[in-house]
Amino acid sequence: MKIITVFLFSLLVLFSVLLSSVQVVSETIGVTGEKDKTYSKSAEVQELLRIIGKKVSNFKSLKTDFVQEKNLAMFKKKIVLRGRIYMQKPNMLAWHVDKPVKYSVVITDKSIKQWDEDTNKVQELSLAKNPIFKNVITQLSVWFSGEYGALMDDNNVSILQQHPLVIEFVPNDKNIAKKMIKSITITFREDEKYLKKIKIHEMSGDTTTIEFSNTLLDVSLENSFFEVKSVR
Amino acid sequence: MFDKYFTLISDFMQGKKKYVLTGVILLTAAAGAGLFFVHYDGNIDLMLPPDKDIGRSMSFLRDSNLSDKVIVSLSLTTDNRSKKDLFNAADQLAASLSPPLFTKVTTGFSVMNMMDGFFLNYAPQILTEKDLSVIDGRINAVSVSDKLKRIYIQSLKPESVFMVPMFRSDPLGINSLILDKLKALPASMGFDVSVEDGHFISSDGRHAMLIIQTPVKMTDGPNSKKLLTALEDNISQLPKYISADVISGHRHTVSNEKVIRRDISLLSIMVSVVFLLLFFAVFRDMRVVLVYIIPLLAVILAVNISHFFAGKLSYLVIGFGTAIAGISVDYGLMVYISARKGADSSRALKLAKLLCIDAITSAFGFYVLYFSKIHGYHQLALFSILCIVISLLFALFILPLTLSWKKCPEIKQPRISDRLEKSPKLRNVSIGLWAVLTVAAAVLSLNTRIESDIKQLDGSEPEVINAEKNFHEAWGGKGGQAIFVVTGSTFEEAMKTNDAIFQRVAKSIGTERFSSLAMFWSSEETRIKNVEDWNNFWKQGREARLKGLIKKEAPKYDFSENAFSPFFDNLYKAADKNGVNNEFIDNVKERFVQERPEGYKMLSFFPDEKEFVKTMSELSRDYPGSFVVSGRAMSESISRFTAKEAKLLIPLAVIFNFVLTYLFFKNIKETVIALIPVLTGMVWLSGLMSLFGFPLNVVNIVAAIITSGVIVDYGIGRTYDYRNNLTMGTAFVVSMSAATNIIGAGALLFAKHPAFSSTGMAMVICMSAGYLSAMFVVPSFCIMLSTREQKESA
Asked: Which chain B residue is nearest to residue A102, measuring alpha carbons?
């Protein structure tokens, strides 16, 4: 009955796909309301990304505060979150939200952990089983690390403004975020040493803006910054 | 009459010696050329009982799309390579596989494409009354407050960009009910697979997988070979740090055929070499080669004649030819020894009668197989009877034309007969020891195990088995599964029956281990009712109640007034009567539904365990057209069938042997003595198999039946010798005959295919036991009988 086994296996994978999406799947609504722009991966854009990427990634550690504004149709007013980001290259990233709720996600070479004040439970996540969460984490890691070249595979890139530099990333067909995200705009500091702002335009019309302040590069970071319960 | 015709034919042959020998050579050459035009069949169906359930299961498996899949599991063999390298290798292999042998290759799925609009669009059709009562339990102040709080907190997290649309469309988390139903499917099958970057990946992250669809059925031997060769060629192009395991029924087909063909070649060579060595060592005469050639010629001619009458010949039947060669050489051997001893025409005639009765008993041993319902056995009977008849004719009429000596050289013979005649003590010890051993064997045989699992007769090579073992280690799913098949002339009819069966299973034994499409997708009738229930559920005040609760709790988290309008605006649905246009549903249907010109078949899966199969088989009786396909049930059917056939064939074989032997001797006592080797062979076989823990099975039971027709010759020959005082050295002839028979059967012990080796063991034990009793016990009884008769006449 080996053929039954083979058959069952092929049947099974269909459902495992759904299981891998249990936590994070979303119904997609809305259709792209505009024609797709045609962007060329011009040498100019690639070169610019390479240069800015080199500048922005020229650090070993990072500490910054952020203010995140979410304009969601689901809420009457915009939600403002305040928090901190710590990064220790090559592979440690901590995102701590302090207000209005306490929440942390910490990525190390060994694991990805998540905690929130409400459940007070630390969850260890598998990127293999959470493809959408993985997409988000990858994006975060790339934005903060400055390795923008990697984004060119899954996005159409254009320069909106030269000074200060503003770059727009529009997900292409290979990107699983295409149905949710219309574009991501990254604004750099005047000195082009780091990010100033990231703005995410969603297909639904919602927007999220993350503005960075008090950014310090190559500072010594305590181990406690990379613990999920690192709260102020 | 026999004397007259035998003498007539012999004299004719002697008179036309040159023409006869020329004709034989030409005939053999033609038959040899004919071998290249004979078609062979490696399909095991020929050897399976024509049982309705078995036939239906085999027909289903052959016809279904279950047998047209090949799975390739790729593994990283070094630690310094990443998943990216693994996925690249999977993509490379997938791109290299193209029609006509490979029609579709799946390496993974795009999650987002599949989930587009699925859950809430189809929830009203999927969710049942039971699910609605769970939803009802969530429409209260506490639950709604808790849900809204969770939604608020989740909305603040980085991944909220993907989550918010879902929260707005599903504030109560209804999709979790659908996902629970979907979770149950893989859980019940025991496999462990994830999807990453659009590729299937194992839990340890070291294995990727491709599912390949092919139009080649696994029972198609030649094309299976082409398929696997093409696949291996493409796999060999992958980087060195990637290894591949191929899992498919095609591998078993090709491997079994390869093993059988290799066994046939090897055994034929082994038997030939041993025979020649034996003959030269004992006889030291080149002409003994002629004795050896007779069964070879018989096999060549029998293959052609069998093919003419029976069509495609089974490889398994041809494989048994090696054992037949050992049986058939007896006739030429006896004629050779008789000629060498300078037997006159009178003794030659008596020998001819003896050989004819030997051939008749052997042929009847095979003839009994015609009473079996298994088609393969009829082929075996035809082939074997032809071998015996042709060998006999060659031995009686052709071989004597080639044998002549100026002075007949002496052949040294065993002196056991003299010792038995002179020593009553030795005779008594022989009989006593035989009686004790036979009784002991009879007692042991009460515990003989009959193996009903036909998988034990799978001759696939170790590489095939190891590939499957590696696969299960990486991906799980070791337990066997059975299939419950529901048929219907229309899709809706089959779906309705499938739903009904699912409900019955849910009530009786639970559905944790029963995977059915009905788990989440029912018949149109049921889905329409589900939608009506869903709409009524919300119209009965629940919509208003939920809106009220959300309105009350929303201000705590500053939700907007239309925060959940995507849910309420799409709350009421109509069932889609025009068929579902969804990639996921279509993919699932492909696995659970088979469309054929004669109708539809719905498949459900459950563990292939005895009680479960029994329950489902009983259930199938209430639904005409439904049936269970189970490896275990098939094995048990085959076992029951074999036992039933054995109950018919064994007594038939015994009766035939008894009647023929009595017709020959026309004396009951001599008949009984002549049948001692048969009794000994059968009893010692089952006793020794029980002692060593080997089971009896489909093939070795048949082998034992056939062997009874051979070993009866030992008893007949010895008894005949004593009765007629032939002094032709019957002991020597029987010894040589047994030696050649045991060599022929013993060669099968070295075969890799379990069917051959199992047959060889049964035949060797039967023949050895029969020979020993023929050499020591039969003469002892004959001497005792003749001594008693002498005393009585005195």
From this structure: B153
